[in-house]
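USER: My hope is that you can spare some time for a protein that puzzles me. I am handing you a single protein, as its sequence and its fold in token form. Walk me, if you will, through where the backbone shape changes along the chain. The protein I mean follows directly.
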Amino acid sequence: MRFRRGETRLVFLTHERSPPATSRPCAPSKVAQMEQGQLTVQSELGAIRIAADAIAQIVGHTAAECYGVVGMAGKGLKRLLTRDRLTQGIDVSGTPDGLRIDLHVVVEYGLNLAEVAATVRSRVAYELERLTGLKVAAVEVHIEDVRRSA
């Protein structure tokens, strides 16, 4: 194959991975069950246990990074929580459909509350599925207060 000067050609090579001869599915089922504050996922190779606090940390950090979120709030409280207490406004539960997350946030004044809540919901669901591999059934965003950011 000859190229002329100044001519660029792109070639894309694809490689499909074939399964090994003795393949067995090692991916866990994506339905988690809540046991003693931990989510348990069963697979053919064993059980994976993820603490509800670990999931709450992921949710808290993801929500705090979202545009328009000033901070997290305690359940039913309009008090802004500090960054080291991000998990206090978060409830994690496992259902047969997947994870159910309830989080309580404080939003910046002047922004569209529905847009901020939708962004938080989609980012939290995406990050949880990406980092844990678990299916997310619901993310409920409760806006507890509206404040001007500092």
Q: What stands out?
A: Residues 104 and 142 are 5 Å apart (CA to CA). The chain has two helices and seven strands. The longest strand covers residues 136-147. The radius of gyration is 21 Å.
